[in-house]
Amino acid sequence: MRDVTVAAVQVAPSSAPLTPETIAGNTERALTWVERSVEATGAELVVLPETVTTGFGPAMGAEELWDLLQASPGAGTAPYTDLARRLGIHLVWGAYEPGEERGVVYNSAHLAGPDGSVLGTYHKTHPFGTEDIERGGWVTKGDTVTVVETEIGTIGLIICFDGDYPELSRINAVKGAEIIARPSALLRSADLWELTTRARAYDNHVYVIGANATGVDPAGAPYFGNSLIVTPIAEVVARGASHEGWVSAALKPQQAMATLTPGSSVPQKWDHLDERNLALLANYAEELAGPANTPFPLGGGRVGS
């Protein structure tokens, strides 16, 4: 990884009922903010929120949503890849993506390169609550990890609620990720947003760029922005407010692990990846990959499964 300036852009989706026109409007708005951020900061990697083309809550079922979506890669990705090519940047954005069969919808994150190609696509592996089609929602979960080598560094992709699951970010890091992009539409609390973003950065000694939505989606859910850029020692080097806009930071990998805490005279002397107890992991691999649930009752009377 080399020195690079990055940005997280937070935008509000249209709260109107979802149509081809609102999708086109959301795309135009997002790309305008991307262009502004690059002009102002010189960012070479820009991350947009989760489902930036539609808003997170579509207020419709999977089949109706599938009918509105464009092919990916193809017409659904072209405005983003075209802008990445024109600006010469790497661009990450979240969007619902149609599967081959009607009603199969993935919550996806795409990475475009400065040549205008789609370098990688990731399907969210941990749908949030009622988003999951298995719970009556609209999203089919993925089961693979996406880590892409680029000329600025190796980039891994996770999406919003994925950040609650340490195993996914650890797999990204073990596969070589130096930067994890976390496009999000997180609405639970700013505390949980910061906690999970900083923890995944520190767990794995990676940079995490969390771009969170703001505004209100078609289902009426509000989002608080607060986009974050976090270093491998869990320092928040950029923090958004609740407004549309961007945050940016210059990442300097040769200095990222130099000190125990930011600005400290105490050097950082351990590496969470290198010092894993691999024998322990091997001994409990079956348990780690097996079912489990909290022993404590959940709110609303639901029990873990």
Automatic annotation (TrEMBL):
<dbReference type="InterPro" id="IPR003010">
    <property type="entry name" value="C-N_Hydrolase"/>
</dbReference>
<comment type="similarity">
    <text>Belongs to the carbon-nitrogen hydrolase superfamily. NIT1/NIT2 family.</text>
</comment>
<dbReference type="Pfam" id="PF00795">
    <property type="entry name" value="CN_hydrolase"/>
</dbReference>
<dbReference type="InterPro" id="IPR036526">
    <property type="entry name" value="C-N_Hydrolase_sf"/>
</dbReference>
<dbReference type="GO" id="GO:0016787">
    <property type="term" value="F:hydrolase activity"/>
</dbReference>
<protein>
    <submittedName>
        <fullName>Carbon-nitrogen hydrolase family protein</fullName>
    </submittedName>
</protein>
<keyword id="KW-0378">Hydrolase</keyword>
<feature type="domain" description="CN hydrolase">
    <location>
        <begin position="4"/>
        <end position="253"/>
    </location>
</feature>
